[in-house]
Each structure stands twice: as structure tokens, then as C-alpha cells.
Design goal:
Layout (H helix, E strand, L loop, with lengths): L1 H14 L15 E15 L6 E4 L8 H13 L4 E5 L20 E3 L5 E3 L2 H12 L2 E7 L39 H19 L1 H4 L3 E4 L13 H18 L4 E7 L4 H13 L14 E7 L3 E3 L2 E3 L3 H15 L8 E8 L17 H21 L2 E5 L1 E2 L16 E2 L2 E2 L1 H9 L5 E7 L5 H7 L6 E8 L5 E8 L9 E8 L5 E2 L1 E6 L6 H7 L8 H11 L4 E2 L4 E4 L2 E8 L3 E7 L1
Parallel strand pairs: 1-20, 2-3, 2-14, 3-6, 6-7, 7-8, 8-9, 9-12, 12-13
Antiparallel strand pairs: 1-17, 4-5, 10-11, 15-16, 17-18, 18-19, 19-26, 20-25, 21-24, 22-23, 22-26, 24-25
Protein name: Beta-xylosidase
GO molecular function: xylan 1,4-beta-xylosidase activity
Organism: Asticcacaulis biprosthecium C19
Length: 563
């Protein structure tokens, strides 16, 4: 089956060839952009919401390319990066497949007694922790021996790219036959984790039940049955670790009426497990996705749907007095919904469009959180890697065959931002309301976000983004930085664009080989890395102000460090 999956992916990639990612129109004159940064005026804290990642397939994390990528994620901010995965309690032998994984944590003997086996799931969590990554522990899905699925329902699905999405809804989506056994499973798992990793460590994790229970292909029960599932799981976690950080429900989108009912239940409902009023809730979570299309021979992104879901989700939480100050995690936060689905509308993934979209969208997410005055803790990128698949196959991932894609370099730039946002403006940055109303379809979005780091440097992020993945002129940026001390500043620039931090263009230039040799592999690895460029001359400071000039290609991202 694995060979068939590889062949399917390869044929799909050939049917929708990956587009070139040099989006610079050399014939067009540069577009002048004026930016200002006031280093002396702090405007808001900037929480590191970017440090959350996840994937459907948990077992890939323990494989060769998965381990390598997990190390790269951990290096972003060791001990503060979190990873969420489906299928940590699913029944099976641990062999990964598209949108599938398993650990065989729970089976039953002939008499129906529980048999717990933590070997596989321990290996997954061990892999995270050894690389500086902590679990955002999703409790799911229903083990086969517990499933209430109708007789004859297959337990593991056989979905693959190109199949109807609802075919994933097999026996694992059904409620447990016995909620007491379900709670005991969660209790035993949490108790084991505390014994294996230590109480202090496990208390830093996130515990969350299920995935997108408002969708029929993830939850076959009713909303009330999910509340019951959730209550018993949270009771099991808290019985083993009373201080555990628990929350949810990680609904699709802002959750609609399902989310409204959940919020009401955890505040005023009768707890199915304890009989008390309400359910412990340390954080709230929902999902947000964009909707790219393939039109007129190119990809057109749509940030509108993603930002509207976030706007609505923030509003739902902020409207509940008992919950409005609780941390929020956007538990899946992506340009579209299916990481394992290639296709022409998803041809943005390999190159710089994904990188620039990420920079532009996260800037708006921070802005939306400030507008709603909510406590935004995280925005989780649902992308990892697919082991042993064709090179640059078009999946939403952070690396291909062990080689980082440009998008992960945007997160490396995020990791250099400081905790305090300072005043910054750009005359070419599209206002948030305009982005949410009509996207970025006219003039390009050349935006800026500036921070002061803990060691008192300035980190200034600049992006040049457009929804339409077509060639355009470079942005010629004139940046005025005020509030500086001394007579000069050292400037270091990091870049992600067609020629910097971009293994995809390097692969295309070598003829797009599907079996790179070791020398080509080394060349791709080098091309994937950003190299800091120290400006040859320090920028002169006059009356506390420095004038900096540089260019940013279309769909490019740049970070300036001033010290």
C-alpha cells in the first residue's frame, strides 16, 4: 500500500507541476515604500504564538526525517515549542499512513479487561522531549475495543490523496461504549506520563480532547456525547495530575453553535464525570483555515476566511465573562484545510508564497488579538513532513525528504523577534479591515512589524506579499528608525526569497531530480538555510535616527537586526 500511496502522490505532483518561485518582474520599476520605526515607543507585548506545530500522523515524528525536522522545531525556542498530533490512542501497529497513525495504547483481553501498552506513545513523546519540543497532548481517538461503531464498520480507513475526505470516518470516530473505561484510560496514561517524565514536566503540557468534534468525519456522536467524552477525559487527567493544563475543544473554524454549546457547558453545565457545575478549562482552542484557488493559471490565496474565523472565535470567547481572560490557542492555523492534499490550488506550498503568507497572516492575527483584547497564547501550524514521499510533492509540510522548505525560515525569523512590539508603520501595508473584506488583490502588501529584544536589539520584520502568485516588481524600502542611541548601528539582514533560504528553487535549477545524489542533497541542504548578511557599513545615526534602504522581492520576507 505504501508504494501505491507514493505513486499516487507522484502522479498528482506530475499532473500539477510545481511552479517556479521567482516572482520578481525585472522589467518593472521598483515600487517605493516608506516605513518608520520608533524604537523608543513600545506599543504592546508580542507573545510568541508561532511556537506551536502539529500533524495528523503521529508516527512520522519518530522516523529519520521526522526526527530531523523535530530537532529543527525544537531549536526555534528550546523547551517552549509544542507539538499536537492526532491518533495517539488509536489502535494499530504504529505504521503511519496519510491522515492516520496508531499506538495500540489500549486493547482488551478475552474477558474485556483493559490492557495498557505505552511503548509506542512513549517513543513519540520521548522523541519530542529529546529535541526540545513539548506535547500539546491530544486525547484521541477511540481505541478499537472501546468503539461503539456499528458492527461491520472498518476501524482503520484507507484514505489517500484524491479520495473523498469523508472516507476517513471509520470506527475510531465513534463514542466509547463505556465512558468509565475511557476515563480510566486517560487517568492511567496521565499517571504513567507523570511517573515517566515527572510531575513538573507534565504540568507544562497542554491536554486537549479530540479533534474538530463539530465535523461528522471526526465525531460520530452528538454534541452532548462529546461533552461527556470531554468531561470524563478531563476528570481522568486531573485525577492523575490536579494541576494539569486542560482545555479545548479544537473545533473546526470558530465552531458555530457547537462552540457556543461547549462554552456554555464548561461554565454552567452539569459535569458528566463529577456531577459538579462546569468543567475545568485553562485554555480555549479553535481552528482557522484559508481557501486558496487556482485561477487564470496561477494560485490565488485567500486569507479572508482564515482571519474571519479567528475574528469570530475571539469574539465567542470574549463574550463569555467567565472565560474571556483565558488563554486561546488557534489549534490549527493554516492557508487551507488538508495537509495531505496536493493539487494546483496548493502549489504555493513549496516556495516563498507560503513563507510570505505566513508572515503577513501572523501579523494580522496579533493585530486581531489586540483588537479583541483576548489572551492569545498560540497559533498552531498544522504542517510537519511526509516520510519517503516524492520530492516537493505538494503537501503542506515544513520539509521534504529532510530538506527544509522556505516556510520554516519564516518561523526562524519569528524566533528572533522580541517580547515587546514597538511602533512601526508602512505606507504600503494593507489595513486589517481591507484584508478581511477583500484580501490582498490590488497593490501588494509590504508590511512591517518591529520589536525590541531582551538584549536591547531591534528586530524588524518586513514582508512583501500578494494573494496572486504572479510576478511583480520589487519593493524599494526606505526605512527611517528613530529613538536610537549612539552614532551608528550595526545592521544584520536575514532573507527568505527566490535566492535566499530556498531549497525549492535550487532543486528546480538542478533539474528537479527525484533521486538527488549525496552531493545534490548537500547542495539542497545548504540552499535551504538562511545566511545572515552583515551590512558592510554601519548605519549612521543622526539626532537619534538612522535611514536604511533595501529591497524586498515579491513574496519575500526579510528581518533586520539593529544593534
Amino acid at each position: 500500500m505504501h508504494r501505491l500511496l507514493c505513486l499516487t502522490a507522484a502522479l498528482t505532483a506530475l499532473a500539477f507541476p510545481a511552479m517556479a518561485q521567482d516572482r520578481t518582474d525585472d522589467a518593472a520599476p521598483p515600487v517605493p515604500v516608506t516605513m518608520t520605526v520608533d524604537a523608543g515607543r513600545t506599543v504592546a507585548p508580542l507573545p510568541p504564538i508561532w511556537r506551536f506545530f502539529g500533524a495528523d500522523e503521529p508516527n512520522y515524528a519518530t522516523m529519520k526525517d521526522g526526527r530531523k525536522l523535530m530537532s529543527h522545531l525544537g531549536e526555534l525556542r528550546p523547551g517552549q515549542v509544542y507539538f499536537r498530533a492526532h491518533n495517539l490512542l488509536s489502535t494499530g501497529d504504529g505504521t503511519p499512513a496519510f491522515k492516520w497513525g496508531s499506538t495500540n495504547a489500549y486493547t482488551e483481553d478475552a474477558q474485556g479487561n483493559p490492557v495498557y501498552n505505552w511503548t509506542v506513545v512513549d517513543h513519540i513523546i520521548d522523541t519530542y522531549l529529546a529535541r526540545g519540543v513539548k506535547p500539546y497532548l491530544q486525547i484521541g481517538f477511540t481505541p478499537q475495543a472501546m468503539s461503539s461503531a456499528p458492527e461491520g464498520t472498518p476501524y482503520q480507513h484507507t484514505w489517500r490523496p484524491g479520495f473523498a475526505y469523508d472516507l476517513i470516518a471509520t470506527g475510531w470516530v465513534w463514542p466509547p461504549k463505556d465512558y468509565e473505561k475511557w476515563e480510566e484510560l486517560v487517568y492511567q496514561w496521565t499517571k504513567h506520563n507523570v511517573e515517566r517524565y515527572g510531575r513538573d514536566e507534565v504540568a507544562t503540557w497542554y491536554f486537549q480532547v479530540w479533534n474538530e468534534p463539530n465535523l461528522k468525519f471526526y465525531w460520530a456522536g452528538t454534541p452532548e456525547e462529546f461533552y461527556r467524552l470531554h468531561d470524563h477525559a478531563i476528570a481522568g487527567v486531573r485525577r492523575a495530575l490536579p494541576e494539569a493544563r486542560v482545555g479545548g475543544p479544537d473545533v473546526a473554524g470558530s465552531g458555530g453553535a457547537f462552540m457556543d454549546g461547549f462554552l456554555k457547558h464548561v461554565v454552567t453545565g452539569t459535569n458528566y464525570a463529577t456531577g459538579e457545575t462546569g468543567t475545568p478549562t485553562d485554555f480555549l482552542s479553535f481552528h482557522a483555515k484559508g481557501a486558496p484557488k487556482f485561477t487564470d493559471g496561477h494560485v490565488r490565496m485567500s486569507m479572508i476566511e482564515q482571519l474571519k474565523a479567528i475574528d469570530t472565535g475571539f469574539g465567542k470567547v470574549a463574550a463569555v465573562p467567565e472565560l474571556k481572560t483565558r488563554p486561546i490557542v488557534i489549534g490549527e492555523n493554516d492557508p487551507e484545510g488538508c495537509a495531505a492534499c496536493p493539487g494546483p490550488q496548493n502549489a504555493y506550498r513549496n516556495g516563498t508564497l507560503y513563507a510570505s503568507y505566513t508572515a503577513a497572516s501572523y501579523a494580522r492575527i496579533w493585530e486581531l488579538a489586540g483588537r479583541h483584547k483576548v489572551n492569545l497564547d498560540g497559533a498552531l501550524t498544522w504542517a510537519f513532513t511526509f516520510e519517503d514521499q516524492p520530492w516537493f510533492a505538494g503537501y503542506r509540510q515544513l520539509a521534504t525528504n529532510g530538506i527544509d522548505l522556505p516556510v520554516i525560515n519564516t518561523f526562524r525569523l519569528f524566533s528572533q523577534l522580541g517580547p515587546d512590539q514597538v511602533a512601526a508603520t508602512s505606507n504600503a501595508q494593507v489595513p486589517l479591515n481591507d484584508v478581511m473584506a477583500s484580501g490582498i488583490r490590488g497593490p501588494a502588501d509590504v508590511g512591517v512589524l518591529a520589536t525590541r529584544t531582551k538584549d536591547n536589539r531591534l528586530a524588524i520584520l518586513v514582508w512583501h506579499y500578494h494573494d496572486d502568485d504572479i510576478a511583480g516588481p520589487v519593493a524599494a524600502v526606505a526605512l527611517s528608525v528613530s529613538g536610537l542611541k549612539g552614532k551608528s548601528v550595526k545592521v544584520t539582514q536575514w532573507r527568505v526569497d527566490g535566492d535566499h533560504g530556498n531549497a525549492f528553487t535550487a532543486w528546480q535549477k538542478m533539474g528537479s531530480p527525484q533521486s538527488p545524489d549525496q552531493n545534490q542533497y548537500a547542495e539542497l541542504e545548504t540552499a535551504s538555510k538562511m545566511t545572515p548578511q552583515i551590512w558592510p557599513e554601519a548605519a549612521r545615526v543622526t539626532n537619534g535616527t538612522a535611514e536604511l534602504n533595501f529591497t524586498v522581492p515579491r513574496q519575500g520576507v526579510s528581518l533586520l537586526i539593529l544593534e
